[in-house]
Amino acid sequence: MNVVLTKPLSLDGESNDDFRAPNILQRVLSLFKSVRPGTDVTRFKLPAIFNLPKSHLQCFGELVYCIGNDMLSKCNSLESPLERFTTVVAWSISMNRPPVFGSAPYNPVLGETHHVSRGNLNILLEQVSHHPPVTALHGTDEKENIEIIWCQHPAPKFYGASVEAEVHGRRQLKLLNHNETYEMNSPKLCIRFLPVPGADWVGNVKIKCHETGLEAELFYKANPFIALRRNHRAVKGKIYNSSSSKILYEIDGHWDRTVSLKDINNGKSTIIYNAKEVLTGLKAPIVKDLEEIWPSESAAVWSEVSQYIMRQDWEKASEAKKAVEEKQRKLLRERESAGETSVPKHFTVTCNKESGWDCSSIKKVVPPAPIVVPL
Known about the structure:
With 375 residues, this protein is an alpha+beta fold. It has helices spanning 24-34, 56-65, 71-77, 81-94, 275-279, 298-301, 303-311, 314-337; strands spanning 51-55, 104-106, 113-118, 121-129, 134-141, 146-158, 162-168, 171-175, 180-184, 188-192, 198-209, 214-220, 234-241, 246-254, 258-263, 269-274, 286-287, 347-352, 356-361, 371-372. The strands form three sheets. The chain has a six-stranded antiparallel barrel. It has a two-stranded parallel sheet with strand order 1-2. Strands 18-19 form a two-stranded antiparallel ribbon.
């Protein structure tokens, strides 16, 4: 089995030495070659030249296991609920990684998985639905008694000069030693074509802990067309007590630099998040035990495509990508002819009009993975 693992996205929005996106002109010309007058664009597949050498499943996992310091252990070790809450806020900010304009990860195939360990933290993701695309994530750290559960469903909308992808679904972090569950959502991904091309995280994020009554509201600002650095990737917000609505802290900064917390009572400001410390020098995961890797592992499913992309052999990359997608269409046809439906292996999935998609893990604990992040 062949497995390809690359470095996570860095602060400059690329995977360092593993991958350099072709220039935008080269990609646009490739797009025109792929589209002819009268082409049915509803069935159009993005050429491989527009892809990063990894799937969305891997990118979601990297938000949790690729991090410069152990912020989760810090969340768990602090004594006061307020200290733990502010650290959880900082952890949520760390999950915003600079996107690469004009490059996108592969759309995961149904049943695709990604299983990685970082120290005692074991992470498992599964693509539980393909149309619409829904990803489930479960993470456990038995030493720290921490659990993470996500269910994500991106819903892109086209607005002419831009595309906004709202990430529906719930993110939960459980600090079981303190009997605390933190719920949060994700900002939107905004891809802007005109007047200045770019991609960034925008919109509102709410973080709450029902057990302590603490809540936070963050607002990720859209970049102005003439983007001065002091306004670029700004985030503002507040932490307050939900029962009294009393504001305790104000949040201000830039999610790709530093974010500060200002105490309303005494006016003292403290840096709670430093992107350079958290997102610099990140290492690619490595294979610890090749024989234990599942055939559904994301880094194996797309390995041939990723190899050709990293060599910039776009013709062979497109052929390999088409082969992966055709295999999935064949499996779908076989299930439909047999009257069968796909059932997730690792998660129980529900969907209703009121709350949308939700996922729960079948197993209580995620086992150690055959892929590990070097510490």
